[in-house]
Design a protein that fits this description.
The protein has one helix and nine strands, in the order H-E-E-E-E-E-E-E-E-E. The protein is of the alpha+beta class. It folds into two domains: 41 residues; 105 residues, Immunoglobulin-like.
């Protein structure tokens, strides 16, 4: 047997080893990310409240507060122009939410309060799906948008 064929066999063996364990590591990482997104690893006291999935009209994460049976947070108009007809709805641990202001200039904020929320004790985790619908005038045309996302966290 020549030295060249032995080197090729070693290279093939090394490549098979890397591919086998590489795929296994990738699967473990994907499962870990899915479990993390489902909130399996978080939710204890001191966990951070998060808002994910929103496009232009976004909640300020530090303002998210779930106390007893009330959820409140501040949303910011990041659309770049004035928006009107702001309507916030929720589902999950809260079923109804309302915005204090229905018209927001560019960069303005308003407080949103959840009015039909399940009672939560301090340290209980929560997850609320939020839909923020609004109208925006672009080039003389009124366009209606809906930003969707989810707020997760721990009750205070």
């Amino acid at each position: 047997m020549s030295k060249m064929s032995l080197d090729n066999n070693k290279g093939q063996g090394a490549m098979e080893y890397l591919m086998t364990y590489g795929w296994a590591i990738l699967v473990v990482m994907i499962v870990g990310v899915v479990l993390w997104q489902l909130g399996v690893f978080g939710g204890g006291p001191g966990a951070v409240n998060t808002a994910v999935g929103f496009a232009k009209i976004k909640p300020f994460e530090p303002s998210i507060k779930y106390t007893g049976s009330t959820l409140s947070f501040v949303i910011n108009n990041g659309a770049g122009t004035s928006i009107s007809g702001v309507n916030v709805t929720a589902s999950g641990d809260c079923t109804v939410a309302s915005a204090a202001a229905t018209t927001l200039t560019a960069g303005a904020t308003t407080i949103v309060t959840g009015t039909t929320c399940g009672p939560k004790a301090v340290g209980d985790s929560f997850s609320v799906n939020i839909n923020i619908s609004y109208s925006q005038t672009v080039a003389g045309q009124v366009i209606t948008h809906t930003d969707r996302g989810r707020i997760n966290g721990v009750a205070e």
